[in-house]
Amino acid sequence: MIVAKFGGTSVANAEAIIRAADIVAARVARRPVVVVSALSGATNELLEIARRAANGDLLVALTHVESLRARHLAEAATLLGSGDDCEELLTEIGAGFDELAHLAEALSTLGFVTARSLDAVAAYGEVLSSQIVAAAFRARGLNAQWVDAREVMITDDHFTRAAPDVTALAGTTRELVRPLVQRGVIPVLGGFIGSTAGHLTTTLGRGGSDFSAALIGAAMEAEAIEIWTDVDGMLTADPRIIPKARLIERIRFDEAAELAAFGAKVLHPSTIAPAVEKGIPVYVFNSRNPEGSGTMITFDAPRLPVRAIAGKRATTLVKLRTARMLLAHGFLRSVFEVFERYRTSVDVVTTSEVSISVTVDDVSHLDSIVADLSALGDVSVERARGVVAIVGAGITDGTATLAAAIGALGPISVHMASLSATGINFTMVIDDAQVVGAMTRLHARFFEEPA
Ligand code: ADP
Ligand code: ASP
Ligand code: MG
Predict the structure, then answer these.
(1) Which residues contact 82 (CB under 8 A, 6 or more apart)?
(2) Residue 337: inside a domain, yes or no?
(3) Whose CA is nearest to atom 12 of ligand 1?
(4) Full domain range(s) for residue 212
(5) What is the pLDDT of residues 366-419, one digit of tens each?
(6) Is residue 82 part of a domain?
(7) Helical H runs in 240-358?
(8) How would you classify the pairing of strands 308-321 and 224-229?
(9) What is the distance, to the nearest Å, from the Cα of residue 68 to the centroid of all Cα atoms in its chain?
(10) What is the pTM of this model?
(11) Ligand that comes closest to the CA of residue 206
(12) Which residue among 23, 52, 327, 444 is least enclosed by CB atoms within 10 Å?
């Protein structure tokens, strides 16, 4: 079997959902399990509803609820026309939005939101989109059935970025999903959402539907995981920043994982790990151009010095200087324990004999981190930094590529640089305001010059 995941733009409206149905229809023989995101923009709007309600703007929140309700009902009606399936779906959608309105009222009474309530609200996006898509697929003659992803994706209780329980997932897919596939049914699940063992709704973090698809694919030992999105595949850079970005037809797992981690939004950063573990190829395709070759992500793509360029803005550099590092063992551990204490992940790391510098994206606990690190040495924080990276399995086949990367930056200052030990990623920390310029220069150097 295969897993086919459709992102927000690929289920944005009736027309997109019909395209998705045609794509799935062409794959029935491969026994697809379908994972869908919320209709595009719905998650942002739901989170806005929760925040507005808690801030006392209940009327604004309820206006958003009604406009989302109208959008979902209109798409469902266009897709289903009339009939029992349509009536049932419209009732389900109506009930969902009534609940959402009650939740908004409750949040406005409370006057605050918690991560747990944000997840409860955000989950409506995928619950509703998956119900609509399942019914629309049936209306197009596909033998599809909605499966409540919250019963399948069991997670811990780190609301808004919950971690999946892979052992539980093996059991729930065996009980709730595999029997459908075996009967020739196409299960349709919402991505992104899950629940704790105690039935509290959770989410896997923004963009998490890719991760859901990969987890379900790995749990079911799928032959392939297909990510259907709004670009032709993984490109040599983010096309919104580099319009000349080109399609990458084949890329290695480790390269794709690095790109995702460094901000290539086309894949959620956690997507690759479950696929690697089971050796399942991941494909990225354009749902508006299903005939395209897409990108195939596997272990054995041909080795290139530079496969793609990535960039990330708004990162923060934290530097710690202390003579105590000299010849001391266990020092780095005490530094990283501080980041662990605040569940803050660290991206780029460099050390010298007497200093360690790290970048972090999540600054929500920065004050506490700085306070704790100050016990270890002198701490300084540089905000408004960004990173650019070149990624390629052959980066260190000689030194020409590294020299060319630094040379391409011209006058842009590099504050910190790191070559990954696996030699597939060379990352440079620069000023936030220079990220686009640096990406443009690197892309021109590696992909737009005649070889
Ligand atoms: P979906 O809703 O289908 O999950 P996303 O918006 O999350 O889609 O991801 C697709 C977007 O990722 C593209 O529209 C593109 O702007 C962006 N993107 C960033 N970096 C890359 C890259 N290297 N290759 C392709 N797309 C990229
Ligand atoms: N709908 C969720 C989000 O917007 C998950 C996803 O689209 O992957 O973050
Ligand atoms: Mg996405």
Answers:
(1) none
(2) yes
(3) 266
(4) 2-230
(5) 999 999 999 999 999 999 999 999 999 999 998 899 999 999 999 999 999 999
(6) yes
(7) 253-261, 272-278, 331-341
(8) unpaired
(9) 23
(10) 0.92
(11) 2
(12) 327
